[in-house]
Structures are given as C-alpha cells and as structure tokens.
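Encode chain A's predicted structure.
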Amino acid sequence: MFLKTHRASEGRIERLLHKVTHGLVGYVFHAEEQGPAIDLRDTRPVGIRIAGLNKSFGDKHVLKDVQLEIRPGETFSIIGPSGTGKSVLLKLIVKLDTPDSGEIFINEVPVFAAGEGAAERDYRYSMVFQSSALFNSLTVGENVGLWLREKRVCKEQRVREIIREKLAMVGLEGTEDLKTSELSGGMKKRVAIARSLAMNPDLILYDEPTAELDPINSDELADTIIKVKETTRNTTVIVTHDLNFALYVSDRIAMMHDGRIIETGTPAEIKASPNPTVRGFIYTTTKGIKGEQEEAGLSATTTP
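Encoded structure for chain A:
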C-alpha cells in the first residue's frame, strides 16, 4: 500500500499508509481483542462493478460516466496514456477519494453508500503505488511485516514465517535483514508486493508497477505478478501505460481515453481492435505489433 513520492514526502507517505492500513481494520476485525474475523490463510476473489462514475478536480472533468465490470479472480489491466484518469479510478476503488456521482460495487456491496444502504465489507485489499515507498528506517523484513505486527494478527514466530513466505513468493529469499538502501529499483518493487501480500488480500491493486523500471526489471516484475497469481485466488487490478506489460500479465484489459472506458477485451481482442484510438495507442507504444501486422499484410499480398 504505497504512494509515489519524493524523499521529502516520506512523512506524508507514512500518514497515508497509516490511513489505508487503518481503513482495513473494519473489514478484517470485528473487534481487536477478538482477533481476525477472516481466515488470513485463505483468499476470496472479489468482483467489481463500476456504474456511472464521475470525478472532477476544479474545472477538469477527470472521470466521465465510467462503466466497468471486473470479474472475480481475474487479472485486469486498465491501460491508456498519462492523464486519462486511470490512477484516479484506482484510488476511488480503495476509497482514497470520493466520486462526484456514480457508485462502485465490490461483491455487489456499494463502496460509497451511507446510512441504511451501507454494509460492512468483509474483504481485505492492498494497493501497491507507483513508487515502492519502503520505510528507510526499517529493514526489508520489517517493511513486509509492518501491518501484521501493528495489528497483532498473529504471534511473532508466525509473523517471521509469513515474511519469509511472502519474500520467497517474489523471489527475494534471505533478504529480510537488508536495508532498503541496498536494494535495486526492481527489488524494491518486489518488496512492496511482498508487503501487500502479507495480509493475503482478496483484492490487490497496482498503480503503474513498471514506472521507473528498465525492460529487464519490468519483465521480472511481470513474471513475479503472474507467479503470485498462480499461488493465490485474489482479484488483481493493474493500472499501467505499459501496453506490453498489460498484454503479458492480463486476462482482460480496458483502455481509458479522455476519462472514459472506450474498449474492453482479452489481450488478443485489444490487439485486434478496429477502434482507431486503441490502434493508435498500440502502434505508438508497441512497435512490434505494428511490424507483425505489416509483415502479415505483406505476406498476404505476395502469396500466390
């Protein structure tokens, strides 16, 4: 659950992390002294339905009547150029902001309903923001176990076991005692994922996970996300402008343009879309696809 920031903003990140973490308490615990209300050893995929969502900041209408459905257990990516509202939509899903109108339903429970229409959510979620935002004062293991220790979810021996398990899931065995300053950018991203996985979330969200990573680290991160999905049953939502990444890891993809969802489909359907805006984005960001299609077209015209 980590927010993009500069070093000078680390205090603000701590406050935001604290806010998001405490936002989970009502969904995970009925009362602190009673312990977990949900079995942390299991995950339950959630479905998300977004209906007529609108959000403005001043005169800028960022989200325009967004309609979207994400199925339980799928890896779903939201793609599009910068400034199209992707990250804003992600933050609304985890209630870090409120819409001007419309509603988000998770397992058909409205996120923003108040009063009698409101219902307590019984799922766990975590969010990995653009920057890993690890706490420099903590070791890798302390970062990963932060939520478990703060909420006293289990005994210390089990906390240490979970830390090792989650680091192993992201390919970072034996790094518990490293300082964050000793990590590469790709390693920091994977520690950030391990920290989100520590609570065994039913829903995990990634905001621009490949930001600031080179192609090799981006590929490693993609393989990490796929591996994590193979060992859990959670629903995964990814916001990214990296089309190659989205095509590789996703079950389905939605493209945003000018604050709206303009196309939804499987990776193959997105690549074959006749929508000129989608095709323009593909050709701009994925030269290989255009080359493949041009070559196929040439072969078709020259074949006797």
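The first strand starts at residue 48 and ends at 57.
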